[in-house]
Amino acid sequence: MSTPTGFMEYKREIPRDRDPLERVRDWYEFHLHMDEEQLRTQGARCMDCGTPYCHTGIELAGGVSGCPLHNLIPEWNNLVYRGLWREALDRLHKTNNFPEFTGRVCPAPCEGSCTVGLIGEPVAIKTIEQAIVDRGFEEGWIVPQPPQKRTGKRVAVVGSGPAGLAAAAQLNKAGHDVTVYERADRIGGLLTYGIPTMKLDKSIVERRVNLLKAEGIEFITNTEIGRDIPAQKLVEEYDAVVLCGGATKARDIDIEGRNLKGIHMAMDFLNATIKSFLDSGLKDGNYIDAKDKDVIVIGGGDTGTDCVATALRHGCRSVTQFGTHARAPLSRDPVANPWPQFPNVYTLDYAHEEAKALFGEDPRAFSVLTKKFVGDENGHVKELHTVGIERIVDETGRKIYKVIPGTERVWKADLVLIAVGFEGPERTLIEQLGLETDRRSNVKAEYGKYRTNVEKVFAAGDMRRGQSLVVWAINEGREAAREVDRYLMGSTQLP
């Protein structure tokens, strides 16, 4: 334990963010940093409690409680408090291949289950995690570590998102020759195309990819397995194949007016903006422009929130984000949402804070259901018709949404972005290899085994479990690598 009374002596502090009115004018990361003394004080708030729920990584009430990677949080909190940053980095890397990603984009379920949070504010775990890995890069402690010997076994990894990169990194450590196939022009999957640059600067992704290359991993871009190379060819040429293609089949909404111009899927909007920014700083114009438009984002999750932030940086005239869920309470409900569940409380995410600073109010509209789109004489969307809804439990015990009479409303819109989740993985690889799927259309591979019904073929990440968090993807990639190594060698020493 850092200090027995630290959680009582010190208040929680996290880094300030850049001013919203300043940061909406650029695409740089919005977080600032804390000095070492502040970070050590925050480390001192960790209780090192008898049962540290922060690294349990279990699912409770449909959410995550604790870190799915089982990060050794109390240990590296204590090491930071003692000023032992190199040792803290070693402990962090024991469970997490890419803390520079999770320290920036993870929603921090570890903090939601922190024991200190029972009586006050939780330890600033995510802040300390990012500080440790950033310090490691600054000091030059993070360097390529290629395996000392090779096994002669060849493994193909399909997809270079967090699951694919984690699987590749671990399999390479075991001495296997690993080739990662990515259909996009850059490595990183959703880390590159999906998460906006202001949340995760792409130089951070490129830095880690370069390390993996230096460790011996081969990356092949602009190559879609199932189209450019038949999936069966990988099975024939490699000793094992790990499918980490993600759950990229976006869910659409089938209502009147859906075919009007100006209505786009959220990921098309985000991906095009990111690619144009990386290619030309948006000078090529190859993106869906929200400038001077009234934007409606349908979907209250992280993808929708990222659309809000991106539209603001384009220079939209207004932006509203619809969610079917009700507005969360200001504090945790001890009955409906008890600790250590992830706290369902009202907060302003970075994009909502920016929109409020620009337009004077939270851009979200809660408990809203879109009924139809209406277009102008040119076939372009001009407005949305909605109703208010409430969630109730019907006579069979099911939770359903009920329309509230008299809540009809018309919203002006020039650009509509649909961000209502994903239906699972795309079908090309599944059909070519004859893979079994579960009731949610994900590739069927038992958790802890990761083997599919096809010999030599494994599946991990969102492709196996459905749309999820980056931490779950990294966890799945690491666990799948263990099973692949065991399959190839008869046993495994991978953590």
Structure characteristics:
495 residues, alpha/beta, five-stranded parallel β-sheet, 17 helices
Please characterize this protein's 3D structure.
- There is one protein chain.
- By secondary structure, the protein is α/β, with parallel strands linked by helices.
- It is built from 17 helices and 18 strands.
- The protein has helices spanning 6-9, 20-23, 36-44, 73-81, 85-95, 99-105, 109-112, 125-139, 162-173, 202-214, 231-237, 266-280, 302-314, 350-359, 428-433, 462-465, 470-489; strands at 58-60, 63-65, 154-158, 177-181, 218-220, 240-243, 249-250, 263-265, 294-298, 318-322, 364-365, 368-375, 381-393, 399-403, 409-412, 415-418, 422-424, 457-459.
- A 5-stranded parallel beta sheet has the order 5-4-3-6-18, with helices on both faces. The chain has a 5-stranded parallel beta sheet with strand order 8-16-9-10-11.
- Strand 13 (381-393) and strand 14 (399-403) form a beta hairpin.
- Helix 3 packs across helix 4 (73-81) and helix 9 packs parallel to helix 17.
- It is globular, with a radius of gyration of 23 Å.
- The chain starts with 5 loop residues before the first helix and ends in a 6-residue tail after the last helix.
- The mean pLDDT is 96.
